[in-house]
Design goal:
Number of strands: 6
Distance between the termini: 68 Å
Radius of gyration: 22 Å
Bound molecules: magnesium ion
Shape: elongated
Length: 206
């Protein structure tokens, strides 16, 4: 009786099979969940190479641009010439450039005021709730916005959670702020994986 009882419970090959199956299931759930929220709508080498026609085609009226390493280096306290040119170029197409950053008030407001654009700071990317509240306050419809940023783990994930279109860009300069350096540990393999799976679509091919 004892043998029969334990024989039923400790059927090792059955147990191993079940563990393998559940591990595989968990892996699949994790991958699907992870990837969906990490996939950008489009990819660009830089925010500065995207032309206005891309935005107007999509009905975009607001470009929500990340600041550090998307518009400029985190060391640039004031906007560079190309940032001014971008703002003007978009304005001519009826598109407003708005800075959306996780960085603190002073850093973002100094830069944004010099550039003459509105800004949202301490947005809490990759989470979407703060961004959505701030956009609602400004009466900005998310269908009319597009998020552009250099990090999958913050910018793109936040945009996807908020159901806003997004463009992933490459870093504008090599160096990052300390907090960003930590994020890059996750960002680099994610980018590699997105590339490998052909999930980085150039904005020109949209
Ligand atoms: Mg950035």
């Amino acid at each position: 009786m004892l043998k029969r009882h334990f024989g039923g419970v400790f059927n090792t090959s059955k147990i191993i099979g079940k563990i393998r199956k559940s591990k595989l299931l968990l892996k699949n759930i994790y991958n699907i969940g992870m990837l969906k929220v990490r996939i950008p709508f489009a990819h660009a080498k830089s925010i500065y190479e995207i032309d206005g026609a891309f935005f107007t085609k999509l009905g975009v009226k607001y470009v929500l641009a990340d600041l550090d390493n998307t518009l400029d280096s985190y060391r640039a306290k004031l906007p560079t010439k190309q940032a001014f040119e971008l703002k003007e170029r978009l304005a001519k197409e009826g598109i407003e450039l708005i800075i959306v950053s996780n960085n603190t008030g002073n850093r973002v407001s100094t830069y944004a005021n010099a550039l003459g654009v509105r800004h949202l700071n301490s947005v809490g990317k990759p989470f979407a709730s703060k961004l959505l509240k701030k956009l609602a306050k400004l009466n900005i419809k998310k269908e009319e916005a597009i998020m552009i940023g250099d990090q999958v783990v913050t910018d793109i994930t936040c945009a996807n959670r908020a159901k806003i279109k997004s463009v992933l860009t490459d870093k504008i300069v090599k160096e990052d702020q300390i907090t960003t350096r930590f994020n890059r540990l996750f960002d680099r393999p994610l980018r590699r994986s997105l590339k490998k799976k052909n999930l980085l679509v150039d904005w020109r091919n949209i």
